[in-house]
Amino acid sequence: MSRKVIIAGNWKMNKNAAEGKALVDELKAICSNCCCCCEADVVVCPPFTTIATVVEAVKGTAIKVGAQNIHWADNGAFTGEISGDMLKSAGVEYVIIGHSERRQYFGETDATVNARLKAALKYDLIPIVCVGELLDERENGKTEEVLTRQIRGGFEGISADEMAKTIVAYEPVWAIGTGKTATPDIAQAAHAHIRKEIAGMFGSDVAEKVRIQYGGSMKPDNARELVAQKDIDGGLIGGAALKAASFAGLVKEALGK
Ligand code: PGA
Fold it and tell me: Is the model's pTM score more than 0.70?
């Protein structure tokens, strides 16, 4: 079955509103000469304060906007948090959940990932749920066990239909921002394991529909080979998403152009 390639740029805590607009304007200039954004789903995920400007800047293009986090409550006394309603009404369509930086530095657990996922689905946002092992977990042969735990905990209690529209990002923590990309074989093995776990929970039809992105030092020069793997359906891109030329180049490579 063929799944549509999805490339999402995770800007992390980079780009104020003016810088975000400049990046999108550059992307638009490059993209006016090609149709990559029609063939792949292309998403940019700016920080919260840059979202409104970027939503405006992408109007009339196929580029979609995502957020980097969502709170599980509808509203209330949760200082510093942002709700699904706020994201939706700001024009956001996707949301990254459970990024390893949130797990490492902000106490994110599989239970909070699960709560955030349910909020995203409730507000009809497309979730991008991140999973991935630490270096010592890989070195101790625990990769599959960790992925299984994150998937079972993160996706507990959602319906098969909800799972089918959810995107999973496999991001081995040792490859994020380090320049060390997982080899296509290593990444493919992890993606196959993730798909097998999803099949176990939701059935193989659903598992075949779910798109699984690779993330961790993906760049234009390794995107083609990674996305050519059977179970790799795109990328969640950090560093290479901060420059229009590398992000656009990466989309093209991922499409095999
Ligand atoms: P990177 O980040 O591409 O800079 O490794 C990926 C991510 O953290 O989503």
Answer: yes
